[in-house]
Automatic annotation (TrEMBL):
Compositional bias (Polar residues): 118-133
Lineage top rank: taxon: Bacteria
Organism of this sequence: Deinococcus petrolearius
Feature: compositional bias, Basic and acidic residues: 52-72
Protein name stated in the entry: GATA-type domain-containing protein
Region (Disordered) location: 52-80, 113-133
Amino acid sequence: MLSLGLPPYAVREPEKMTGIRVSHTVQEGGAFDVVCGELLRGGFALTWTHESEAAPHLTEEELEEEKQQEKRKTSKARSKTPFFCEKCGGKAWAKDTARLVCGQCWMPMHTEADVTRSRQNAGQDQMPTRKSA
Ligand SMILES: [Zn+2]
């Protein structure tokens, strides 16, 4: 973003470049400013419009509420990871960091991610997987 001349800023703390909600400004004389200027001078025009690019102005209470909602969403998602017992097919839901044992079989329970990983390690995956950079 910086090298493109679009310095980012956190909406809640504009002196910082990272945060839960971020936006950016167009640096005058920056790469984006220069290239976009050339493009527009060449007659380029968008044929559609965007509702509002500006970050909504929120009160302190609204910002705090948003922060709390984000926290609740994250903790709820983390506690809803399904675990499976490979022997009896039993299911349980817990945080993704939990280590569960099936109460019927006394076998360790696995998440979908665990099963995928062990298949890949065993060389049994049927679909070629994309390597993450
Ligand atoms: Zn079981």
